[in-house]
Design a protein that fits this description.
S-adenosyl-L-methionine-dependent methyltransferases, 375 residues, single chain, elongated, alpha+beta
């Protein structure tokens, strides 16, 4: 059952002065969320949806002055405080998501490519999101500041999340000592990818695996796991090896809070008679359990396949040219609200694209998604 949308977002402050308020802010927010849930992609679509569904909207809110124009919708929502929107988003998510213990939380960033402005020299909106593999929803997000990168946004996002008992996975950009320390301080675990940005550490981990194999893992706690996948005309064999590491072996090993094991993933892909190989390395705060480690690493790709891909293909985010004020950030939050609602729904066996079309056509289904199955 969904939770009531209105009670969580009613606290957002209206940026307009009183004499300019012809339409209530909650009317605009409720209208926009319903419209995005129902396949709307921009301000004009939101206005069109409102005119079509005004009688239905008035079952829940007054809409005393009817439906605002798309210019009014754009002007008001683009002036909202994005931090207030994020806080309401978080309080809403915390109610619909179950406890995080045992969850895999995949963190990754994505840019809305057409949200840049040449005139104001503003970079595209870049958001770092936390994806719950257990719940299948976005747990939180944080904007990457202009002239900055994901390294500064990730710790701020971690501050917003309940990490107790969960495992955080981040690609190589987030493999930072400060990030590991924050995760451990919040009673979570981590699986951090290694690449060139941690060149020395990566080489030392590779050397540790070489040393371990040379001694046939003598005296070292370790496990190996192999998985084979077939599909889309290819076969992929993944071998996961997890070994306990002595932090003293690493140049700055003592500075990596909670570090216990290192992981090597060897991927062998067979496509059209050709074989390609790739080896990736990770550091982890988990004890040795190679099958669990492989599951965590595979789980990280959900943030790409079930969030970023869906935002681009189903919600067409990369094509959106919304740029005014905080409009791109607010619209990004509305898309993720819609995505979470659709992901949580289990009453219709359909793709997210079909569910959005169903929400556009079926008033009862839309009410169920937004306000609870009892309405």
């Amino acid at each position: 059952m969904s939770v009531n949308f209105i009670k969580h977002f009613a606290s957002i402050e209206d940026p307009r002065i009183e004499r300019c308020k012809r339409h209530e802010l909650m009317d605009l927010l409720f209208l926009s969320t319903c419209a995005v849930l129902s396949n709307a992609e921009g301000w004009e679509d939101i206005e069109d949806f409102g005119h079509t569904k005004l009688d239905w909207l008035r079952k829940y809110l007054p809409f005393a002055n009817g439906i605002p124009t798309h210019d009014t919708i754009a002007r008001v929502l683009s002036r909202l405080d994005p931090n207030a929107v994020q806080q309401c988003f978080l309080s809403w998510v915390q109610e619909i998501a179950s406890a995080s213990s045992g969850d895999i939380i995949a963190i990754d960033g994505k840019a809305a490519r057409r949200s840049f402005t040449t005139k104001e020299r503003r970079n595209p909106l870049h958001m770092v999101s936390a994806w719950s593999c257990h719940n299948g929803i976005v747990l939180g997000q944080r904007k990457v500041a202009d002239k900055s990168n994901e390294i500064t946004a990730i710790p701020l996002l971690l501050d917003l999340l309940d990490l107790k008992g969960a495992t955080v996975t981040i690609d190589a950009m987030g493999c930072q000592r400060e990030v590991a320390a924050k995760i451990i301080s919040k009673q979570g675990h981590y699986m951090l990818a290694l690449k060139g940005n941690q060149g020395v550490l990566q080489q030392e981990v590779k050397a540790w695996f070489h040393k371990a194999r040379r001694s046939a893992f003598h005296g070292l706690s370790h496990q190996q796991n192999e998985q084979t996948d077939h599909g889309h005309g290819r076969t992929e064999v993944r071998r996961c090896t997890q070994v306990v590491i002595d932090p003293q072996w690493l140049t700055k090993g003592a500075q990596w809070a909670g570090l216990k094991t290192v992981v090597e993933i060897e991927s062998e892909r067979h496509v059209d008679g050709k074989i390609t190989n790739e080896t990736r390395y990770y550091i982890s705060s988990h004890e040795v359990d190679a099958q669990h480690a492989a599951t965590i690493i595979r789980g990280h790709w959900e943030v790409e396949n079930k969030l970023h891909w869906v935002l681009d293909v189903t919600f067409r985010e990369d094509e959106s040219r919304i740029r005014r004020g905080h409009g791109a950030e607010v619209m990004n939050a509305l898309r993720k609200i819609a995505l979470n609602l659709l992901q949580q729904n289990s009453t219709r066996n359909a793709s997210m694209k079909r569910k959005r079309k169903m929400a556009a056509l079926d008033d009862q289904f839309r009410a169920e998604l937004l306000l609870g199955a009892d309405l």
